[in-house]
Amino acid sequence: MTIKEFLNKISDTVWEIPVSYKEGMRVPARIYATEKLIRELDEAVYDQVTNVATLPGVSKYALCMPDGHFGYGFPIGGVAAMDVEEGGVISPGGIGFDINCGMRLMVTNLTYDEVKYDIKKLVDKLYQKVPAGVGSTGFVKLSRSEFREVVEQGARWCVRNGYGWEEDLELMEEQGCMKGADSSKISDKAIDRGFNQIGTLGSGNHYLEIQVVRPENIFDKELAARMGITIPNQVVVMFHCGSRGFGHQVATDYLQVFLKVMESKYGIKILDRELACAPFHSPEGQAYFSAMKCGINMSFANRQVILHRIREVFSEVLGNSPEEMGMHVVYDVAHNTAKLESHIVDGKERSLLVHRKGATRAFGPQMQDVPEKYKDIGQPVIIGGSMETGSYLLVGVPTGDQTFFSTAHGSGRTMSRAKARKIYRGEQLQKDMQKRGIYVRSTSYSGLAEEAGAAYKDIDDVIEAAELAGISKRVVRLTPIGNIKG
DNA sequence: ATGTTC
């Protein structure tokens, strides 16, 4: 029997693969997608999401969000909540190598007309001040021991040291600092790779974008206003980056640790080595949990310094202070993490380690950890599309409980990077985008080709699926006008 | 994603 015969349509946006599909599945797998997205879905995702459903402690369903695609072990777009009192595991493959890869959005009080002649200058200057590309290093000079403080304190360290405003911290997941980060669980090698990378964008699909909110793209005026979007053709800045080589090394270190002890010490058998894991309540699991929190904080700090640089650049180019230009953070979301959260499962409150790998937390109104400013409307959700097509600001909703309050994180690739490089040319893409009013700079033309809009699912389809399924609600769509691609 | 194959 093929996978398609096992796939049960639960609703217009939810598809289920029962436990009978594969030996060892503890729970069904559920994919969130419209019929169109299901047709486009990489078949490997079915294999990966059902592998996840075999992991010890997995609660309710192994999930895949509408932007799901093939990843390391888990699909990207994968969500799995492990019950830590029922032998639940922690798995680096369910978090991603780029720990706390995430998005931040900042508004301005400027309109498109006020910046249109300065876009090139802004992008060129941002390109200088926010280092991008493989192996790039930042302008924040830290010793290795200072960097150990940064990974324990996150964005708080940055604000204390002059990078940004106190109010920024209130508008970040975990207020910019994940408690319990313990740098004694970090290898010297990870420190070596990360200590000079604060304030850098990275490569791949990481980018920094100047965007405009067109009046016709505001779906909920009241919610938009609550998030600081009130002016027609308002200019905002969005960026996407993570924990660079640091997070990557943390993941690599602990994958090796887990592979050694998983079967011999804990008797866990897995279908794919890439799903290496350890019980959450084990010395190895706890060590990785503390180390991963350092990765989360490195990334929060990285985005905080980048935010500060953006304010500096706008101020330099446009001649007003960041305060005068109303450069306030909307929110900062992580989309590669595992977090210990309390959720109701079959009527009972459970302590779950929610893995979100290429998936965004989307807490509804009144939930704990939603900032006071947004308590009554729900957590802002920032979803980045491809550099050509546009991005979205959404909000979490009460019906998000079905996915442990998680939603999509981006467009999701439809073709491999290698295939995109074969089909598209970076130089031509840059010219085409320029014609359509998007000034783009990149460290690499081949990297640019990999990020061609056509190599991704249609962001509007992904957002539509997420909204129809009731896992997040659209607020505004954002249109790019300038882009720095890592 | 990544000192793009320790």
TrEMBL record:
Family: Belongs to the RtcB family.
Protein residues bound to Mn(2+) 1: D98, H206
EC supergroup of this enzyme: ligase
Domain of life: Bacteria
Positions contributing to Mn(2+) 2 binding: H240, H335
One BP annotation, GO: RNA processing
Assembly information from the UniProt record: Monomer.
Stated name of the protein: tRNA-splicing ligase RtcB
Residues reported in the UniProt entry to bind GMP: 205-209, 335-336, 384-387, 391, 409-412, 485
Keywords: GTP-binding, Ligase, Manganese, Metal-binding, Nucleotide-binding, RNA repair
Active-site residues from the entry: H409
GO molecular function: GTP binding; metal ion binding; RNA ligase (ATP) activity; RNA ligase (GTP) activity
Cofactor(s) needed by this chain: Mn(2+)
Catalysed reaction equations from the record: a 3'-end 3'-phospho-ribonucleotide-RNA + a 5'-end dephospho-ribonucleoside-RNA + GTP = a ribonucleotidyl-ribonucleotide-RNA + GMP + diphosphate; a 3'-end 2',3'-cyclophospho-ribonucleotide-RNA + a 5'-end dephospho-ribonucleoside-RNA + GTP + H2O = a ribonucleotidyl-ribonucleotide-RNA + GMP + diphosphate + H(+)
InterPro entries from the UniProt entry: RtcB, RtcB-like_sf
Cofactor binding mode and count: Binds 2 manganese ions per subunit.
Organism of derivation: Tolypothrix bouteillei VB521301
Gene expressing this chain: rtcB
Protein EC: 6.5.1.-
